[in-house]
């Protein structure tokens, strides 16, 4: 039985093991998938021990996506562009890194939720590994403008530089949020609320009648941002459950060459994690 894992901080509540178990049953592939807690200074040792024990591949979640990128000998083009990985595969004792976050988000928003992203002025909150994974995909999906705001402005500037499209992707300061206009898409890629963080305090001036609010987090971690979106009266509010399942399916295909069906898994897990409602 092949072994796979999720590396991150406080991963015991992650739905990823349940998702991949469902994919394995669906496709008839024998695999084990476990969560492995690792602090940043212990990630290298944890990855080495996993490989030595027969590990074949892994997912990477916060806060390790950029650190894992540095461990990879071979990278996919989308991982190289993002500067972060969320999917690892061990090929002849060398780590191959990919990033399926962007593809997972776009598939969820356009396919499951029917959103047309073309022409949308988009605000991306955060510039860490999650934001790096989705930013190139948003540009490819046709958003009109991508404004990146991060509490550490240097990280936002670095992400914008990597994207290399200054006319479409640029940064503003967090303190400017009340004065940068409104957006048709607001995406929370921060981890506020994950580690006893301060809930997001965002101005309602960011919204218009067409604004969709998307949090890459799900479950209780997404409550602060989704509560803001509901208070703003937004009609389209999306949490990160669908993206989680879609990026997992992309990872599964990287490992096994087979893409599982996601709709049944989404329906099952949506019962456990009710979809956020506006109003």
Short description:
The protein is α/β, with parallel strands linked by helices and 279 residues long. The protein contains ten helices and twelve strands.
Comma- or semicolon-separated keywords:
279 residues, alpha/beta, Rossmann fold, 2 domains, 6-stranded mixed β-sheet, 6-stranded parallel β-sheet, 10 helices, 12 strands, 24% strand
Q: What does the average pLDDT come to?
A: 94
Radius of gyration: 18 Å
CATH architectural type of the largest domain: 3-Layer(aba) Sandwich
Strand order of the largest sheet: 2-1-3-5-6-4
Question: How many domains, in number, for the residues?
Answer: 2
Largest sheet: 6 strands, mixed
* CATH topology annotation of the largest domain: Rossmann fold
Order of helices and strands: EHEHEHEHEEHEHEHEEEHEHH
Task: Count up the helices.
Answer: 10
- Estimate what percentage of residues fall within beta strands: 15-25%
Q: List unreliable stretches of 5+ residues.
A: none
Query: Distance between termini?
Result: 47 Å
Number of strands: 12
Helical content, roughly? 25-40%
CATH superfamily of the largest domain: NAD(P)-binding Rossmann-like Domain
Structural class: alpha/beta
């Amino acid at each position: 039985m092949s072994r796979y894992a999720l590396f991150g901080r406080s991963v015991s509540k992650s739905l990823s093991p349940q998702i991949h178990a469902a994919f394995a049953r669906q496709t008839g592939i024998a695999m084990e998938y476990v969560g492995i807690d690792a602090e940043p200074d212990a990630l290298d040792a944890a990855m080495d021990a996993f490989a030595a024990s027969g590990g074949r591949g892994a997912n990477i979640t916060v806060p390790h996506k950029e650190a894992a990128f540095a461990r990879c000998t071979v990278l996919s083009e989308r991982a190289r562009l993002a500067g972060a990985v969320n999917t690892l595969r061990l090929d002849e004792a060398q780590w191959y890194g990919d990033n399926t976050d962007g593809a997972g988000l776009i598939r969820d928003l356009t396919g499951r939720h029917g959103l047309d992203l073309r022409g949308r002025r988009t605000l991306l909150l955060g510039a860490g590994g999650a934001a790096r994974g989705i930013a190139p995909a948003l540009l490819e999906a046709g958003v009109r403008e991508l404004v990146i705001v991060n509490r550490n402005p240097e990280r936002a500037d670095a992400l914008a530089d990597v994207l290399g499209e200054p006319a479409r992707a640029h940064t503003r300061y967090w303190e400017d949020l009340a004065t940068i206009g409104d957006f048709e898409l607001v995406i929370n890629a921060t981890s506020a609320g994950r580690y006893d963080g301060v809930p997001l305090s965002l101005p309602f001036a960011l919204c218009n009648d067409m604004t969709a609010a998307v949090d890459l987090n799900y479950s209780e971690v997404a409550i602060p941002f989704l509560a803001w979106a509901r208070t703003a009266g937004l009609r389209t509010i999306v949490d990160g459950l669908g993206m989680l399942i879609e990026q997992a399916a992309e990872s599964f295909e990287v490992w096994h060459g087979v893409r599982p069906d996601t709709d049944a898994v989404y329906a099952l897990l949506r019962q456990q994690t009710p979809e956020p409602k506006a109003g």
